[in-house]
Design a protein that fits this description.
globular, 18% helix, nine-stranded mixed beta sheet, single chain, alpha/beta
Amino acid sequence: MTKTLSIIVAIAEDYGIGYNNKLLAHLSTDLKHFKSMTTGHTVVMGRNTWISLPNRPLKDRKNIVVTNKENELFEGATTVYSIGEALANFPEDGESFIIGGAMIYNQFFSFANKLYVTHMHKVFEADTFFPEIKTEEWTVESKSEIFNDEISGINFQYVTYLRNN
């Protein structure tokens, strides 16, 4: 097995991912999908994402929090102060997941081998955005059917992208 650095994210049609440090939508099926994908793996997040979690640390995962605030520590997580330090904490084999927020996605985007994207077929008011997924850099590995969240009425689809070599 080799080391895989994956990003997992839910994005709106305009690449919006959040507003006021909150997710744009709470899709129950997608949250379960996120949990099933990341359980048993290392997850990396920024301090704001950590703070926004309702329950910390994320259970049954190695939690790494990246912060630029010297001496800041997060109970139940490995605290790192740079992208390089985060990369050094990834296991040698297996898959690690970047889970947000926007600054962390941007900083790790060029290192990622794989993207797990929940495409929400809607535009929301957003103040944070995901980097553009360019077809010359990424190839679609798989696409799910389009699902509908009965509570919100939002249509969404899971798409997995692989980085072109």
